[in-house]
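Form 12-C: Joint structure prediction
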Amino acid sequence: MELNLSLGTAAPAEVYDTIIIGGGPAGLSAALYTARASRKTLVIDMHPGAGALGMTERIDNYPGVPEPISGRELLDRFREQALKFGAEIVQSQVVTTDLRSDPKQVITADNVFQGRTVIIASGAMGRTPSIAGEAALIGRGVSYCATCDAPFFRGKDVAVVGHSEMMADELPTIANFAAKVYLIPHGKLSPESKEIVTQHPQVVYLEGARVVKILGDDFVTGVEVKLANETAVYPVSGVFMYLTGNRPVLDYLDGSVQTTEKGCIAVNMQDGATQIPGVFAAGDVTCTPVRQVVVAAAQGTLAALAADRYLRKTGRSGSTSPESVDSASGL
Amino acid sequence: MLINEADRQKLTELFSKELNTPVRVLVFTVDVNDVSNGNSDCMYCKETVQLATEVGELSDKITVEVYDLYKDRDTAEEYGISRAPAIAIVGARDYGIRFYGIPAGYEFTAFVSALINVSKGVSGLSLNNIKRLGRIDKPVHIQVFVTPTCPYCAPAVQLAHKIALASDFIRADMVEAQEFPELATHYGVYGVPRTVINEDYHIEGAVPEDTFVLHVLAAAGKITKEQAALAGLV
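Section 2 - Result
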């Protein structure tokens, strides 16, 4: 029997100079700068293809990259450059944080990371339940976590809604348990995702379909689906949701960081500082008026410079080399 | 061995630093070959005993006691245990911290944390929340339903156990939903973590400490519906 024991938050953790939450252009740019200055840097990335850039098919206007490039490929270059300078990148989801403690704690599903500074760059792909019936049936058949909840649907029919890479990653887990899986994409599946679908004969791919309503009183009983101009009802016991939106992803912060009326992290736009000393934010999570890759990268850089200044000012560094970001960057 | 060598070393070091006073780990199991007890179906009894035993080998401050749910009925009743596998973690006194089902996967974190917190006899909750929980004056039973592969569940279990540590009136159980399907069905568990407080009060998903404590107060009737609404609980 494989128990997959996780020591998680119980295990002692080393202390990073900077922990960056989010592996998009803001987070990876920040990592490039702090790592280049020999600051011990960790990037926690939920999924390389989960963010806005990772899902962008084509970029034509990133300075210095004249040829058309996919968002994923550009992101790979950001990542490669950050790794080259010594940043560590882990793929995991941040569950909660304690940003007031010393050192600050960033807790993921399977670990606790400690950092002297934290840069929040988790993007703005969040959403609130918006499909009719969705909010009322959370935990009653509506699920956002296949690894958590798929076992409850052993031998039952379920729907999977969305076309993201995360959906494709978790589809096999769902298919392992469910009798039949209706895949309702709300968009276009990538060739890689299509390949995964074909490997699971119990998956029924409803190309071009969208869910308009999740049905059920106490528990999910079905989904109402629009396909072309027709509406059909599919009886299912569970619905796994993988849709994205445009709200800042802040749920793991538990309200600890001050936000604006629009639900964005409130920052000093000069350096990304939040109201908590040593905590900075960058990119779409700050609701910058212009959502462009180059702007997110610039904000990540400003946050990295500010984090470095904070570390020098407080004399708190676990780095082996004291070289600063400013000197390393030539600024 | 269920715990690999690297984790054994980490845990040995952790326990030597963090365990203050002795902790008893009471494991309740059933003999799956004994048909006379009417409960020969115990999915992970053997592994739960083995896991607890291996953890017990890592510190002389941890004592593992294995009981048969039926043959040691008095002890089971003393600790309010009616199902197996179950683990009660007891320190200077019994804080009401229980694990129903094997604490494997992500729940192993909650198991280790419970050992440390019970040994210290300190909840680790904020002073404000400890003060709030001081208003509880009647028994409260918290059950957190989990699956071992749920990343959000262990924090919810840890929080529930800390809340139990902070109040003499509160007991908190981790319940592994797949090992106790009848309980999962009874409480309508189709997603985890799902927390049931005093039978009819539910929390869906993992919530922050302040919110969890307010839910406990609401379930115990210590805040009004209006206050609960103001706190965003309903």
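Section 3 - Comments
The radius of gyration of chain B is 17 Å. Chain B has a mean pLDDT of 93.
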